[in-house]
Amino acid sequence: MDKQKYLELYSQMVLIRRLEERGAELYQAGKIGGFMHLYIGQEAVSTGLIAARQPQDRVITAYRDHGVAISCGIPANQVMAELMGKTTGISKGRGGSMHMADVSRNFWGGHAIVGAQLPVAAGLALGDKYASRDGVTICMFGEGATNIGYFHEALNLSKVWTLPVLWVCENNIYGMGTAVGRASAVSEIQQKAEGYGMEHERVDGMDVIAVYEAAQKAIAKVRAGSGPRMLEILTYRFRGHSMGDPERYRKQEEVKKWEEHDPISVFHAYLVENKKATIKELEDIEARAMDEVQKAVEFAEASPEPSLDTLFDNVYVEEV
Amino acid sequence: MARITMREAISQAMWEEMERDPNIFILGEEVGVWGGSYAVTKGFYDHFGAERVRDTPISEAAIIGAAIGSALTGLRPIAELMTINFAFSAMEHIVNEAAKLHYMFGGQFVLPLVIRAVGGGGRQLGATHSQTPDAVFAHFPGLKVVSPGTPADAKGLLKAAIRSNDPVLFIENATLYQLRGEVPEGDYVIPLGQSTVQRTGKDVTIVTYSKGLEISMKAAEELAKDGIEAEIVDLRSLRPLDIGPVIESFKKTNRAVIVEEGWKSYGIGAEVASRIYEQAFDYVDAPVVRVAQKEVPLPYNRALEQSALPQPADVVAAVREVL
Predict the structure, then answer these.
(1) Does pTM top 0.80 for this prediction?
(2) Is A116 close to B101, i.e. CB distance below 8 A?
């Protein structure tokens, strides 16, 4: 990996972190509505994973999607504007926090019902296979989604049809407030891939390079036609499940322990120790991220609200 | 024009469309090697091959989810649910995905998707396999819901559904598969969202669709013997609902009976009656009467089952009530 790539990954992780922190403030200030699920702590997952894709590779995820949106290349402006429900938002203010997508960047959402995106991902991959394109569909989901039927139907179908899907479980240990051991028959989610005859690997999700390298290998294998496979990426969210989470289900010591493995700090130390970047360079990146987020907030605040007479736009493609 | 069955008309529509556009493919349980559990796709697998006529596992969520995903990539899937009763296992993908994706992502996602599902009672299949839950699906904006009552309409509407860039649920009634009628050959397309008058008359308006059309036609013949001429308006599409021809007919007859196979409560008849009262209140000469399925899970016993389903005699009685 060249120096530029390292810096890009760092830059993206910091941008996601700052965007999420600012989002939390704006939510508290009442400028963002609805449900909002922050990606803080999990930045290395979307960053490392999506950095390993080719432009023809599709990405689809669940509702914790701001970080994924940034990793797919959606400008912070459009993410922030969507959070504020503005017309300049990536979903024109119709989707909100949980429903961001950008077809032009091969990002297929932002699906807010747990596990629902998995069968859709199988279909995206089927589309590429049917048309003999070499794209891989990267489908992200939480460990909580592996307990719902859609997961099992989709994994089974993808194997039966040898679909080019990389199933990526972001295991952040909690499905809302229920720890994986209390909800899943096996806490090691990758074991579930065994039942579908799929190869799998468990990866440290606090280490962006580990995620990147594992993703690169896995995507190449799927692209080569070997069928679907699974990555289980171990990670942790430092904030609550959503903005209204009293966090009675875990102790602050546990959170603090994980924060010692903050993916941004870990990567910072790695870059400096291995002389991939200077502290000054990283500080500059951090300042630019702050600036980008500030500009995004200003852009979103200055953007117009959707006109009420556009309420019925896009219910259907065709006039009815 | 050939005189063919509803089953043949549906099959013909898909066959011709698949010959026309290689992006159209079929997926579902037993659609391929078996030839369709109702034989609608008989011969397709041998002609179009396994890639375009795809047998699936018994996984309704995966069938509809995969159909949605493939539609997003530009394909035009026809997903067959073996019966509409199994649609409940795919409800998430029909309701929360198919009906919403275009809107929710600001118009970016386009889903040229058809879901074919057969429903209806009267075949002694018991409560779980005999439902007519059309109104449930017609409730959701973003979805189009179509249900033909004649072979010609089946062909024309299915072709329109396949060519539509919106998700369409195409509901067939199993007891109509053997119904015969004249069907135009070749490129015959009926736009979605257009009601039509299937029988003209001056005394009463019967509003119906799908199986209800057959029942209403029989009732109209009975009534004609007594000199009562019923006008029958066939909705054909439940969403979007074209109420215009209903209102036009009602303004002429001032009396209406609505016939549906589904349950009466919160049903198609409730919707149509409301629209009549809203849009033609000054023309009402008698309360609108609804003929529908009795409010029970359909029983297996033949006599019990038939007593719960709307019959031509019920329609005749309802018409006499409004006259």
Answers:
(1) yes
(2) no
